[in-house]
Amino acid sequence: MRDLERKFGRYAIPNLSMVLVILYAVGYVLQLVAGGLFPFLTLNPYAILHGQVWRLVTWLLIPPEAGNVFFVMIMLFFYYSIGTSLERTWGTFRYNVFIFTGILLTILFSFIWMGVSFMLGSEALSMFGPEAYFGSYSILFSTYYINMSIFMAYALTFPNAVVLLMFFIPIQVRWLGIIDAVYLIYQFIVYGGASRYAILAAFINIGILWLTRGGWSRVSPSQVHRRAAFRRNVREGSQAARTIHRCAICGRTEKDNPGLEFRYCSKCEDNYEYCSDHLFTHVHVRHGETPRMIP
Predict the structure, then answer these.
(1) Pair 11, 154 in one domain
(2) What is the pTM of this model?
(3) 23 in a domain, yes or no?
(4) Which range of residues forms the domain containing residue 245?
(5) Which of 220, 251, 269 delimits the end of a domain?
(6) Are 291 and 272 in contact (CB under 8 A)?
(7) Are residues 112 and 56 in the same domain?
(8) Are residues 59 and 190 in the same domain?
(9) Is residue 74 part of a domain?
(10) Is the per-residue pLDDT at 226 higher than 70?
(11) Where do runs of H (alpha helix) occur along 15-91?
């Protein structure tokens, strides 16, 4: 990861969470004023292979959830907040990698879903035809599961963080992350179809994060704090242990006795320094000899 960051880090998009929130906001506006456009924006792999390549990007405009304006504003602020926290903790490049990996996996699994559907030859596919079939179910490949994976990543990174459930119930994020994962597993088992492939893409993205936990954990808040404290202690210890003068005979420094005076002996061939107690009581050494007192 560090090698990739050195090579491609300059291409990372800063404040990517704001970009995602803006896309969601545009999607909500389109839903309100031009809902009929949505069927032409979805991640429909069949339509993409038939020339509608814009769908590789426009599906990101489809908001993860629908609701009233108040709920939408809270949701957008919440995802911006946790995304910004992850980017600040992981770094811009690592956060970009996580988000774009989730996006690419979702696109990949939409095509896998199409291929498996043709191989299995489902009854609905035969009845309605591929254009209508894939057009109907492609809406399930939305940013909903991308955001679920972002929240699970947040729970892994900040397990002890506390949020107010329903605005007044304090609960640790770790438990919400577990509930999130259990709910996705439930959807995977019960819903099936296209949803199963979208959920699988989200879990694989989290799995990649977990498998690279060695590199990822080094940028977790606890590890960042631990390393900063360690460096501070080492720096303070080094400064405390640093001395200017040291006697070549007794080893005392100005920290041992601030009243000691130190001088270099002009008759010693090497640059040896002596305290006032041993300046005139040592044997003048030649090059390579060890300083010692006069017998």
Answers:
(1) yes
(2) 0.68
(3) yes
(4) 241-295
(5) 220
(6) yes
(7) yes
(8) yes
(9) yes
(10) no
(11) 16-33, 45-49, 55-58, 69-90
pLDDT at residue 134 tops 90? no
Q: Are residues 166 and 210 in the same domain?
A: yes
86-118 pLDDT, tens per residue? 998 888 888 999 999 999 999 999 999 888 888
Checking if the pLDDT of 230 tops 70, the result is no
Report the distance separating Cα 60 and Cα 198, nearest Å: 14
CA-to-CA distance for 112 and 197, rounded, in angstroms?
A: 8
Name the percent of the chain lying above pLDDT 90.
14
Amino acid identity at 76: L
H-helix or E-strand spanning residue 264: strand 262-264
Backbone angles phi, psi at 275, to 5 degrees: -75, 170
Among 285, 137, 156, 138, residue whose Cα is nearest residue 212:
156
- DSSP annotation of 160 reads T
Domain tally, the chain: 2
Residue 187 lies in a domain: yes
Tokens linked to 46 = 């069949």
- Say whether both 197 and 51 belong to one domain: yes
**Residue 170 host element (H or E):** strand 169-172
Residue 53 has pLDDT above 90, yes or no: yes
SS3 assignment, position 293: strand
**Angle made by CA atoms 295, 250, 234, in degrees to the nearest 5:** 160
Q: CA gyration radius for the chain? A: 32
- CA distance linking residue 9 with residue 18, whole number of Å: 19
How far is Cα 46 from Cα 131, in angstroms, rounded to an integer? Answer: 7
Q: Is the pLDDT of residue 206 over 70?
A: yes
In this structure, the answer to whether residues 72 and 6 fall within a common structural domain is yes
Per the CB < 8 A criterion, the answer to whether 106 and 206 are in contact is no
